[in-house]
Design brief:
This protein is mainly α and about 425 residues long. Among the domains are: about 80 residues, Serine Threonine Protein Phosphatase 5, Tetratricopeptide repeat; about 80 residues, Serine Threonine Protein Phosphatase 5, Tetratricopeptide repeat (Alpha Horseshoe), CATH 1.25.40.10. The chain has 18 helices and no strands. The longest helix is centred in the C-terminal third of the chain and has 88 residues. The chain is flat. The relative contact order is 0.07.
Length: about 425
């Protein structure tokens, strides 16, 4: 049985969290009409093609920020065509990044990768933009379930953060947090815990409360999955405090849900049900169907464990309906497993058989995905090791350079002292000779 995700299910949880990765793209105080007027003015007055491409790009960014992604893509592709016609590679790189961001926000991952991958070898973007591109590509692959590739890109981003000495703390938190998410999904809880703790330390240093809230909830999920319930409750309680302070209904709902699941595992059924029901109400108020689905699934599992099979079936069927509407294949697998068990316990063998057949078909499709993921992980093992070796070698080189510098300055100091001693001896000899004369 796959572990129950503590946020939004397998791929959806990462996709949801990775939306934090969409970096702010400049501030645009002007309304969209102002950019359109600027384009019209440039066209009428014969402005340069570079200016026109820049104006279309800024219009696309403004449209994206105004939640008009389709119009944003139209403007950005117009800008891309103009920039390519004048062979302005730097502008082309910037526009492609914006197009990738918009496609990512729409969930069109392969189209996003088509525009983002060429940027990895581009010479016309800054080091920080390279890191942002690597992080975005890594999160796209994690959303696709290709965890090996996702890890390799995020590790490369970490390497560049250290190599280029980029001081942007928020990026460091994101990279470590997203690495934790990927390892969590891969059920590698030891590595997940390591990266979550790193990101939490950075979030504390930066006093980033929203990050602290998300990371505390994530840590609670790890400890819940590893059976350390006291630590899980401690972190989830802290996440709830922060969520209330920030008035963040979604994070509060997820923390409550996981608090309920943890209490359920501890045998405190009534408390667990009340917490899960409260989380479900928050899901309804926030119009968060994923949260509602997980609450229904958790309640159904508790009903089943306590012999309330009728309520379990009814609740699990509601969860299944939501998962089907959201097309959450991985989340559906666990619901079907619970539902088939409930039907078997009720003696409704025909229903159980139908659900089991459906579950088997779903697992076949997921199994193919798992095979692809395993192959992908094997292919990227060399890349991951290579990145880690680069990090180690970089540290060794820096230590070597620092040692050489210390030796140089030490030698220079000795030479200076020796020179001063010689000068002093010569001066003393000169004074003695002067007195003798």
């Amino acid at each position: 049985m796959r572990s129950q995700s503590f946020l939004c299910g397998r791929a959806w949880r990462i996709a949801y969290l990775c939306l934090f990765l969409l970096l702010p793209i400049y501030a645009h105080p002007k309304p969209i009409q102002a950019y359109e007027q600027e384009i019209e003015r440039l066209s009428r007055q014969g402005g340069s093609q570079a200016q026109l491409a820049q104006a279309y790009m800024e219009l696309g960014i403004a449209q994206y920020e105004a939640e008009m992604p389709s119009r944003a893509l139209g403007s950005l592709f117009t800008a891309l065509g103009i920039a390519e016609s004048i062979h302005n590679r730097q502008l082309v790189a910037h526009i492609r990044y914006r197009i990738g961001v918009v496609f990512y926000s729409l969930g069109q991952y392969y189209q996003a990768l088509e525009h983002l991958h060429p940027l990895l070898n581009a010479r016309f973007i800054t080091e920080e933009e390279q890191v942002n591109t690597l992080v975005l590509i890594g999160n796209i692959y994690s959303g696709l379930g290709h965890y090996g590739r996702a890890i390799s890109y995020l590790l490369e981003a970490l390497y560049k953060l250290e190599h280029f000495d980029i001081s942007e703390a928020d990026i460091r938190i994101r990279v470590n947090y997203n690495l934790g998410n990927i390892y969590y999904e891969d059920q590698n809880y030891e590595e997940a815990l390591l990266y979550y703790q790193k990101s939490l330390k950075m979030a504390h240093e930066q006093q980033a409360l929203r990050w602290q809230c998300s990371i505390q909830a994530a840590l609670g999920g790890v400890y819940k999955q590893t059976g350390k319930y006291a630590q899980a409750l401690q972190h989830l309680g802290r996440a709830m405090e922060l969520a209330r302070e920030l008035q963040d209904g979604n994070n509060l709902g997820y923390a409550l849900l996981n608090m309920g699941i943890t209490h359920g595992k501890m045998g405190q059924t009534e408390l667990a049900l009340s917490e899960i029901e409260e989380a479900e109400k928050l899901g309804v108020s926030q119009e968060n169907l994923v949260l509602q689905m997980h609450c229904l699934k958790a309640r159904g599992e508790l009903f089943q464990q306590n012999g309330k099979l009728g309520q379990a079936v009814s609740t699990l069927r509601q969860a299944l309906a939501i998962s089907q509407s959201l097309k959450l294949q991985a989340g559906k697998e666990h619901i079907l497993e619970l539902l088939s068990q409930a039907y078997l316990q009720m003696g409704r063998l025909e229903k159980a058989y139908q659900v089991l057949r459906y579950e088997m078909k779903l697992k076949d499709s997921l199994y193919q995905g798992d095979i692809s993921r395993i192959i992908d992980l094997r292919r990227n093992e060399y890349t991951i090791r290579h990145v880690e070796e680069k990090l180690v070698n970089e540290r060794i080189e820096r230590a070597h350079e620092q040692a050489l510098q210390r030796i140089y300055w030490f030698g220079a100091g000795i030479c200076l002292i020796f020179l001063c001693a010689i000068l002093w001896l010569n001066y003393s000899r000169y004074r003695l000779q002067s007195k003798a004369n």
